[in-house]
Structures
1.
Amino acid sequence: MSDLWEYAPAPESRDIGNLKPSYRMFVDGQFVDGTGEPLKTINPATGEVLAEVGTAGTTDVDRAVKAARRAYDKVWGRMPGTERAKYLFRIARMIAERSRELAVLESLDNGKPIRESRDVDVPTASAHFFYHAGWADKLGYAGYGQDPKPLGVAGQVIPWNFPLLMAAWKIAPALACGNTVVLKPAETTPLTALVLAEICQQAELPPGVVNILPGAGDIGAAVVNHPDVNKVAFTGSTEVGKLIQANLAGSGKKLTLELGGKAANIVFEDAPLDQAVEGIVNGIFFNQGHVCCAGSRLLASESIVDELLAKLHSRISTLRVGDPLDKNTDVGAINSAEQLAKITSLVAAGEEEGAERWTSPCPLPDKGFFFAPTVFANVSQAMRIAREEIFGPVLSVLTFRTPDEAVAKANNTPYGLSAGVWTEKGSRILAITQRLRAGVVWANTFNRFDPTAPFGGYQESGFGREGGRAGLEAYLDV
Amino acid sequence: MAAPSTTTSLPPDLAEVTRDESTLRRFLHGLPGVDQVGVEQRAATLATRSIKKASKLWAIDTAISMVDLTTLEGADTPGKVRSLAAKAHRPDPDHTDTPHVAAVCVYPDLAAVAVEALRGTQIGVASVATAFPSGRSARAVKLADVADAVASGATEVDMVIDRGAFLSGRYGQVYDEIVEVKAACGDTHLKVILETGELATYDNVRMASWLALLAGGDFIKTSTGKVSPAATLPVTHVMLQAVRDWHARTGHHRGVKPAGGIRTTKDAIRYLVAVHEVAGPAWLTPNLFRFGASSLLNDLVMQRRTQLDGHYSGPDYVTVD
Amino acid sequence: MSDRLSVAKTYKLYVGGAFPRSESGRSYPVADTKGAFLANAAQASRKDARDAVVAARRAFAGWSAATAYNRGQVLYRVAELLEGRRDQFVAEVSTSEGVAARKAQSLVDASIDRWVWYAGWTDKIASVLGASNPVAGPYFSFSVPEPTGVVAVLAPQASTLLGLVSVLAPVLATGNTCVVVASQAAPLPAITLSEVLATSDVPGGVVNMLTGRTAELAPWLATHGDVNALDLTGVAATQRPELEKAAAGTVKRVLRAPATEPDWTATPDITRLRAFVEIKTVWHPVGV
């Protein structure tokens, strides 16, 4: 039936993003020109150039690491935890104060819906600083000995899917534990990290404690391979994670990796179905599916798969795909042409391999990078769409008959980042969550994040945790 | 149990459900559970929809046309009901293009007054019945109450379910009573008030919704307005899911009426967004969705003026009843 | 002069609860620190390593699912059995490491005590490493340490029993199964320990003991797709970068070790218990 009620566009004001024509790298407390070739960061929703961003060259990496080392030796490494804490509290507050600006800028640069950047990314980033601030002077209670020491200079490389939030996940614990930081944001999404640098400046964080180097993968490699970096933290693809782990072999640098995933979302016949549908939708369409812990494999009990699919199709049809700045947009733009091409090719592979494709009939904007929410039914374990991380709004539906089969299929992957379980039966929840080989298991919910809750993977999804007491280990010499 | 009087035939599997107390119980207890956190989260997320410009004006007009303008006070008089009827017919005398409301909702003893006052209009008269609001009377009394309302010319009857029976698991009793009330209504439209504030859990709201639909209720309604909490967004979500699923299984449309506590245009639009995205666009009609409200109408009228005039209006520009 | 020829022991591998010879048929002579022949030990091949990984994987489901209390009792039982064969171990450690009997005694005693120490940890480590996470929302969130999986342990070269127990017990205490490559030059205490394990309550396959050339076996274990973690303690410093690099192929957890063998008599901390666990965080809504 035709829709009686078209929602008029409700765009958040772009001006709030305070977009500047050009941005520069942040080293030793100053915004300075880098020696790299400047890059143009674009709005993936329109293809327009947003700003020119100066990038770091390899000599700048050395300069930043030296600044970080100086700051570590002379200031930050010896500063009492109580003082470090206050800087982090300041940063948390300033992120909150500038939250709408950051949300708009994030949506512009990344393509994610403003509803998500406003309600998830930015508040969680602020919460991350607030949480870790409190640890700075309480590390002796964290279970790593009475006076655990920092590692030194941390080299951090983050992805484009949660640009500000990932920066917060990396910087907050590093600083709380007494390390200094050289961070490289993703090539396609450098802007909010540079505003975070500005916030560090406003918070009067001592120069060199945080250094932000925009650039491509070669700069990331230069950061992690720099001989004076003591700790490396990387979030990104498993492929690059393996390279980094191999490159760091023998270096003695402490390493944590948060890599890809192919999470199973298991729905039993007694699940709270309507909420399961919401969880499945949130699991795979949150942030356009650009989520390493996305619930990309739906494992549904054969006895309810038809009903579940029908409900999913009608629910997904209501998802509004379009302008990320529109407050009513549920699914925004794919971050880059390159990512869109990858999604498109994997979807084609799914069709070739015989899975049954259903795509939301939602209208798509005629410019920018968009992909309509897609569900593949009749997927088997052997198909590429069941094994490879698509990192897009594409759900693969498989079925199972018994709990054992569900667990076996869920675990049948080299990844192990997250998983979901939907059932009303409490004992079954506990039994299944125990047997799932994944670092985060959401039962009757999905894609929840909190600074107090450790996050990280099993197997090829990486090692080390971010968040909670367990997350401190990555930044302490223990 | 008595056979439902609704002429609409149920698919065999649902007809089987109402065979006896135990099949009914098994069916209701077999409905999927409702996760409180999940449904509240979904309702909260959907409530962030931002409705602007033409879509807002459309929503306001639609909401006005869905109002069951209600007065259910011990102090009600024929004069009060007549003034309410006038308001129902012309919510904004300065803007005659303002839609009229769906119905006026009153106690049974004033139904005849409302019928008289609304003669010649397309506005319905809804009468509460069945010993509203508590429903704590003998069934004969409740049925007499219904008969009285119908005899007075009410076009709609808003009954209350026996929450005591429901909460103690006597589903057959609740079912039978609705069936008998429906029979007493004849062609009069029947809304079944679940009083969700007393049912306490979303699981109960879902079960009661299905119970009322199985028994032939044309609408399921959240509340009497006399119990707190009255209508809430998540409760309405659960009830919208029920009518949506009912439609999927039977092909028949049934309606939903949240009542009590909806006072502002902003609230009303959030409900409409829920109707639109949970049940579907087909439910965006007074035939399938109503607001049980009194002060809501004035806010809708005021916001309508704001939309049309391009500046904010004030309470002195809308009529007090 | 004795009028009876003693029955010499054949030192074999310990894989899946059985004592096979190397499938390769190879063996190598083991001498004491002065060069005197002690025995021929089986020289494990890559295929033995492969079989050991299969056995360890097979044993993982059961061992990791055993209750912590049960694991504690099983490890304590190992200490009991070791105590009963104390003299044999003292003799073997003494010849293997070239230390005086008194010193060997104290090493064996420390080894027994170490099993007891880790036995007591099995049902406490979750309280220390786990947590209930006070998340900002209507959810119950908790984190628990779970075993990483199959761990390849390259055991210390110098400390033949105490070093071995110090690296093995924490792996078992946290619910992992393992493939151990014993001290290359002095593997006899490790094999005798295997005999103890075989008669203890440690299920077959939970510990698999290989003897042979560490440098030859380590790369196969470092690259093996079904090995989840690698303990580099007993590997020559020169070989470690190559192994770390190989381990990256399947994102293995690698426990690096100090360049020189640590003093195993020092009281351990929980570093090794932390090394081969995965923190799993579980969320559930809180509602009625």
2.
Amino acid sequence: MDVVTLHNVSKKYSLSQERPVLLKNLFIPQKKEEVWALKNVNLTIKKGETIGIIGENGSGKSTLLKIIAGVTAPTKGSVKVNGRIASLIELGAGFHQDLTGRENIYLNGTLLGLTKKEIDKKYKDIVDFADIGNFIDQPIRTYSSGMNVRLGFSVAIHLDPDVLLVDEVLAVGDTQFQQKSLRKISEFKKNKKTIFLVSHNMIYIQDLCDNVIWLDKGRIENKGEPHKIVTSYIKSSKLNTINKSTYGTGEVAIHKIEISPTKGKSILSGQEVAIKIYYSLMTKVKLLNFGIGIWSYDGIYCVGVNTKFDEEKLNPKSGSVNLLIDSLPLLSNRYYLNIIAFGENEAFPYVFIQAVTSFEVAKGNQNSRGLVWLKRHWVQNI
Amino acid sequence: MKLRDVIYIKDLTFALVSKELKSKYKSTTLGFLWIVVNPLLQMIVLTIVFSFIIKIQVDNYSLFVFSGLLPWMFFSLSIQGGTSSLITNRDLIKKVPFPREILPISSVLAHLFIFILSLVLLVFFVVITLGLSFSLLFLIPLILLVALFAVSLSLLLSSLDVYYRDVSFMLQALLIPWFYLTPILYPISYVPKQFLGIYQLNPMVGIMTAFQSIFLKENIVVWSALGVSVLETAILLVAGFFVFKKRSKYFADWL
């Protein structure tokens, strides 16, 4: 059954320099600048699918969600949604600081689409999930920000909608709470609810979604099987989109980075990898240290090593330094490198370059998930 | 629309009305007493000014003024609240889908609740001093009329206020002369005959004289003016809903 249908949906926003004034507007036509946030979007989503939506900032993801949620209407085209929608993206809508937790549960729950009777039935579950103790009868201005978030999330997650809109909110709260939340999402999937997931975390996207839509500048660039779409999305994002910054006191200049195996031969998990830094000294220095940081493209700091910690005494002369990794313990993903050269103190580097280069670990014999590849085997005792 | 949807709209309206009332009075010292204190204070001061300083010859002037002040304050406060209700609740509109009409309507309903409470006190006072009267029953359709008038103006003005933010300021400014052009401080008999025609075009004139008649037990209601009020309210109600419905599709983009 088709749960969400978008037919030729386009959305235009008019930007005006200043707020229109009624009297002026009646006599002088206003010049308006137009931005098309969505262009000719066609979508048909079946019941029970989990759809990932990825794209750069400004690609139209939140506009698309707002139209699906019914918060705003398309300029052209039509939207049809069969069933109730709940958005986990906007938590705590309508929360009023002077009202108690209990009162806010009813207010927020009603705003999100539940009748009073339905909230009565779920009240105990909502309070238990939020885990804020006796504070439930205190005004929420006494709550910590974490309690606020847990309360809002707890109401939203008990909505029992047919369509659920989720974003980075999944990562909210402490580990225990995050696990509770992810479990709830899996429950939704098991109950054949339709879920839209917007995220920059490619691991969540590939793990949880059945299909992925890639939005670029308001159009659907591509859609299909998660791994395929995510890989082509990552490939297309050029290095300049990462905030490339360089600073330092200037005693060392870095010329080139070489990663082997070189391009052509793909890098596999568990393989031997070498990272070579070609540099030269601009002035004489007493101490020379190099550090390399490896970050995944979805923003996780994987590992950082430097010659100071490893107690490598480097000769303070121009040349190259090679980091030899016996077995690369990273799973299939795209990674970028930060390079730092310093003397005594890392905090005052000779040079630091963020995202100097990137490399990709190919999907080889990928039998595990997450971030890290383990050299392993299993043993059973009966 | 399914039954569940109707119950949902009822619950949502109730939730928004109670939020508005609670948020107004929860943290105040006098709480609900403020509903009576404000008009009472005004009545006392106005009685002193217009009985001893500028002498207006009206029997029972304090009751006269009070019976006009209460509906005026309901009207004035509810349309000011209603007009800015969309902007006040911009976060809700941008985040949650629901029939947007509920916002100005629940603002008027919240003020209506306060109005009815204060009217109950006034009725109580009148019954004790002047005795029960059949005319008190007319309060019900009259209150309905003022409320509908307030709703229609709120729908119209709130939808305009989203795009043209000076609407709420223009309204505030207009309400001041409007007050003086309504027979609240002075009886309608003071208005010169040659201006009475235009004067009655003000929908609050018919409503005000009706309220005063009910409480003062004097037949000063001007039926032609009341007829004008009903007609104008009906037209505004249709226009208000129409304009609001058309514009509400894109409210979230402009707030």
3.
Amino acid sequence: MLTKYLKDVIFSMATFFLLVISVNIMLFPDTPGFLGLNPHPYLIVVLLMSGRFGLKEGLLAALLASIILSVYVFLENQPYFSWSLLVEKSFLLSIISYFLAALIVGEMRGFNKSYERTLRHENIELKEERTRLKEQLEIVTEIKEELENRIIGQEETVHSLYQSIKALETLNEKQFYQALTQLTARFTGATKVSLYMINYSQDSIQRVAQYGWPDEEGAQKKFPLYEDIFGLVLKFNRMLTIKEISDDSEHLSIWEKCSHKAYAYVPISMASVIVGILTVDDIPFLKLNISTIRILALIAELAVPALKNIIKYQDLQEMVKIDPITELLKYDSFVSVAEVEFKKTVRYQLDFSLLFVEVTGLMQIKNRYGHDVHIEALKWISRKLQQALRSIDIIGLGPQTCQFVLALPVTNMEGMLAVIDRIKKLEKCAADAPQWCKYLHLYYGTASYHPSLDSLDSMIKLAQNSLKLNKAFKLRTKSSKKLRDKKDELGTVSGVKA
Amino acid sequence: MNWERYLELKRERHRPQNRFRPENEIEAKQALALGLIDIGQYVEYSLTLEPLLDSVHDPDPDVRKQAIRKIAEQRTPFSIRMLHNMLLDEDEEVRLYTASELDRLEGEMQKHIHQLRKKLIENPNQLEIRFKLAKAYIEYARLLLLDNNLRHFFLNKAIGILNRNIALQPNNPDYLFYRGWVYQMQGNYQKAITDLTKTIKLNKRFAMAFLILAEVYFELGEYHYVKWIMNVIPVKKQQVEEYNVHLYWKT
């Protein structure tokens, strides 16, 4: 199979020779083969061939030109041809000129060709380099785009996420729950997020925080723990997303029936025990992706130390003697402090009084105004009681709920009654008295020190008995008053009828 | 360009033990162009970049401004939502910059719409201008309009324009895609499915059409369709967000 180059060589040589021979036949028919002409016209063909293709091709053209010329010499001298004609000076000069031209021009062309080859090689190398750089640029552009997208979405900002969650450690429990949902929304692009905490003792799970929901009514709603989708999350003990849920028709039907549908359920585990479940209730389709899932897992993992801290703080709060709502001493701690004062009283034969205060109506306030107002009322009462006391007096929570107990050192019965009056005044005349104040009723139980009382316990019992009596008396008075009022009312009605 | 710094970088290049550490993004890019750092190092460096949201509270006011502008330039619903959230930021300056950026964005979009409308009045039969105007309405409604009624008003306008174009070129995948997208935004899912399916039939490489169709099925709760679409979607790796979604749903 002839190569393209070889075909080109043969075609060029044939064309050049045919051209010269045609010119010879057409224009110079009297001198066939340009015999005797020097320099011989075939030299042009040799020059063209060697100049175009190089040494080998030039030599080939010179050989062909010599053969053609020999053929012409043979034909011209027939039948008198003799071999001596081929060694004639004019013939030899032509032949030598062909080969010399082929050699010189061919060499020159060869040199040019090698130079051209080098340049071409360099060109190829440069092209390769260009392609490589182009590819590199494309990669860099891709990376840049990817990075920009990541940065804007905060999707890979683990550092930032870690810092944010770390900051949650300083919050209290409620704030932490709310902040965790907000943080999840910020880092994942979710529009609605909820947080549920598990109460294993009650087999329930309670929604403790929500983000992005318009109404906060169901914020504190409780659900059974081992039913519906939460049961599945507990069973698998791993993150469940809508993709995995929809893989199983049974799970999907459970999910569809449940009232707290979410696209992702992320368990928050503490020492391999699930303590809470973070749910992504609504998220744009494009944001529910691999990156978001990774971030959710990360949030659940990073939230644990913060949660641990909060639990530790709660434990510490439990351990300390102060009640966190009223900021008063708990009963046990009150007794231990009052005991010291009582001993002093016995030793120095001083006055000492105990005052029990029971507050009713708090449940009514809770039912009517809600939990927050109930807490507010408790705080308000404790504040008022504190205002009525001196700095040396001791106040604490009573043994029962809604009971307060006051130890009044160096105070006799009269002084104690003065304190009760002060409390009553403060309760009634308070400028900041809220509207729920009318539901509150205070009952008092008192006991003053007498040398016959040998312990604080006996004083406490006396005070408690006094409280019981006081309460019973007041309630009886109230009911009889109500009865009287009713009777009066009935009388009026009957009077009207009459 | 800082030539002293450049020469220093050059010198450091010949010291393999002292690897060059770019100080900012521009320097990193220059170093990459000069071959002082390779792509791996550039990526490593870029990953350690301070996140854009953190830059919003940078002590340097220029950095703060730039960060907010960068967020605004993203022009995605997420970034705009982020800006709206930043309007409630504790820092007054952040609130101010954010408000000015939102104003600027709105101004630009309104100006663009105005120019296109003017062009359309001059050349009422230009399909391309009509299409551009429809796209501008869609972008405006999608990004900046929080009020539902106003949003629907602009989306309906876009549908009207696209309907006229589709009447003349019923097999143009671009027109069909945008109309399908608008239907999806309006919650008109059946019409969206019709348009988007037709778009995909006309152009099987139309990744966004696949994605929006998947979103429609996601909204409808037809998750098996979402998975099916995500397995055949012709999404490229460069489309990071779309690719991440594809990876998530791919089975």
4.
Amino acid sequence: MKAGIVRFPGSNCDEDAFHAVADLLGQQAVYLWHKDHDLQDVDLVILPGGFSYGDYLRAGAIARFSPIMQEVVAHAKRGGLVLGICNGFQIACEAGLLPGALLRNDSLRFVSAPVTLRVESIATRFTAQYHVGQLVRIPVAHGDGRYTADADTLARLEGEGQVVFRYVDEHGEPTRAANPNGSLRNIAGIVSAEGNVLGMMPHPERAMESLLGSTDGLPLFQSILDTLQGGVSA
Amino acid sequence: MSQSSTTSTTSAPVSQVAPRPGDPAITPALVAEHGITEFEYERLVNMLGRTPTFTEIGVVSALWSEHCSYKHSRPMLKSLPTKAPWVLQGPGENAGVISVGDGWAVAFKIESHNHPSAVEPYQGAATGVGGILRDVFTMGARPIALLNSLRFGPLTSPRVRWLFAGVVKGIGDYGNCVGVPTVGGEVVFDPSYEGNPLVNAMCVGLMREDELMRAVASGVGNPIMAVGARTGRDGIHGASFASEDLSEASDAKRPMVQVGDPFTEKLLLEASLELIRSGHIVAIQDMGAAGLTSSSAEMAERGDVGVTIDVTKVPVREQGMTPYEILLSESQERMLVVAKQGHEDEVRKILAKWDLEAAVIGEVIAEPVYRVTEGDRVVAEFPGSRLVTECPQYVLEPRESEALKAARAQDPHEVTPLEEERDHAWTLERLLASPTIASKRWVWQQYDSTVRTSTVRGPGSDAAVVRLRGTDKAIALCIDGNGRHVALSPRNGGRAAVCEAARNVACTGARPKAITNNLNFGNPKKPEVYFQLSEAIAGMGEACTVLETPVTGGNVSLYNENPQGAIHPTPTIGMVGLVESLAHVTPSAFQQEGDEIVLLGECTDELGASEYLLTVHGLTIGAPPACDPAVERRLIDALLEAIGAGVVRSAHDCSDGGLAVTLAECAMLDRSRLFGFSVDLSPWALLPHRAVLFGEAHGRVVLSTADSAAVLRIAAAHGVPARVIGRVTNADAGAQFTISDDTFRAPVAWLAKAFHEAIPQAMDGETPAEHAVSASHAPVTD
């Protein structure tokens, strides 16, 4: 697998994603510069976390206009895989790769904490290595993570199995207390209708080593790897 | 002192410096407004051989301010130990640097932003983080961790809650955006900080040893470039503002507080590291306090060269800025760079990649002068490096405050216990809910602590542990200080601050290696404050020598006073330790039911200066517990040997709140994983029981182990007292204490509620009133 990690001005989880792919998965990783148009033939584009363009105007709102994003959108339209994490999820929504939007946390405060997620769907190219209903611990760190969409979109996401991760308590219940940002329906991550773009607020790249407290992000990357090696790249 | 603005000079300077049209006349009132004393003004006139210009008055007011010049503290600071084989860069640079082996080096520094945070908490704290980040990355190191040490008045005050919330948000927003994890720190609440909150920020960076860059100007003909953000009118005189007492009028100085832009900082960070590695520059320095003035004068002084700067070449945000304003602006996210001659375009190219500007604004010259021009007109000129070196230094007569002497002489054992204290569980619960001791989760949840995927132990641990990727090593980091202990016994308090920081680092499995320090004190011109300063520094030096943790740099923040009085003298110590193997990383909290609990060190009858006296009785009295660095050294050696032998399951420093609080924390730091415990403290039954439980005797660590015999053997070999005091149990068994026939038991969930909900309750009122846990203390006063 060859993964391309986009570097916007203000990206700050780019090195973490690179480390996850190159050092922990042993796969090829390259950086993609925001001013470039060359995707370098990558199989997977990662839109990493951070504060692209300082979150000016709105998180992700300026990044979508960068030269590299034109190529990322084209890549997605061809069925190529895109993983948007945190700010990358916000950018994917702004660029129209995913429905809905991410608003300011309802606490009005940044939240950095390990959270429990329930895996809602394994019928995606990103989650086949989990099992349905599995509870995983993955950190969040964001100020704008409250997922919002209109009622029709929410119904469609739920109906089509596009909700992939949900914030839950230790018993697996999507309670208000378990929701770190006020997301509608406790949504933490969704996949596009075509199944090739995943956006999630939690950081799977921070949950890859037991030394750092959790390896629950590892199956996500392994699922992607399996998908690509199985030749199901589109 | 010259009374006239037209005094002519007899000794002709190298170039003609004349008053600039439109500048105010130099009058005694103007000089005084700039915080320059008559003595200092005379010294300046003698140095120049003429009347200074308005621009020169501005330059000197900044460079000779306490904040930039350390004029009251430098003679004392010289006594601190600064050398060890692993110290690559000691005090005097933007940051200290130590080697951690394998060619890796760690740069670190602490800095205060107390005064700006007192009037504008959000921006004041945010720009404090920005400044300390720049100090570290200008050394060539990539910032990998941030910590902070905060002091506020009691949370019962709405203004304090506003300051606290603003400071925390400011720190979080800045560090989170730049992408450097905030991994630890401390927050203390005490009435002495009500008018003067303290905001100290520490940054730690990592680099290869051969990438170390120093801010020393060199190479005649090399261009001086301004890099990064443009210069505006913000923050003019910030350094001078930070060098005076706060008053009712301080709020009017809010425009002096700079405004931060972490996004530009992130770009500047990447561009600066790329510049340093590119080989196109010879020096780089942050334009921090006193901006362009300070950065250029200091780089020239270190390099023993002259510099000339043309203010009309400096990229500005606003039209019509005077030389005075351009030189003194403290606009954020700017760097001063000495490039190699002929490499200017390469420098511009690197900056342009990161959407930033670079402009040549001056040049390194052979002539030993510091010269500022406005086009062809010379507006300021100082001979050689004397602008920096001639700053007066003051050595004053110290005298201990009679009031504090009297407070120390009071016997805490004569304080009559409250009726409720018959039940020690009541006292314990009350202490756990005191905001200084209570969990700071409310704070650190606003800080991204896991970005960079290297945080092995984050906030809430005795010390943070950050792995060095690609090696089996990690660094342990903490900040510690206890102003109450220093107030009541400055020398002992200085020793204790260093020793407690060292203990914290050692509890995580790290050998303490070096410190940076932030000296937060009142007005040094008062003999009582000067006494505290000189004694505390002496105590720090004693401890650093014994622990072999040299001082690599630091910051001095004086004039932390307001009309209601001065703060407790508060040195904060930023300690860096080295974990030789990741297998040695040790948690603070209990891990396993059935483990034995061992106390390293001794309980004493010391109760003075304790959190117990402040929280329960509103008193700051008594002699603080004695701190002996030699005892601490043996304790740390024994602890690290036991950890290295693999027989320590958890280790937690015993400090605020004493042994009972330490044990309770071990049982419930992680609220999702509670333990119980049963301890027998009967060996100390003859001592006052509240001193055994809540006294803050130094030199103690609580650890849990499955092999107490090995721990006791190792302790004995180091001459460290050690005893098995009990056992880790199931949470349902509760926290069980026995001191001879004095026994009590407290439900762990109840203690955990007090500890974990006190601050959220005080800030957000999230706990229903009927469940409020002692958060409604009356304001406590000395």
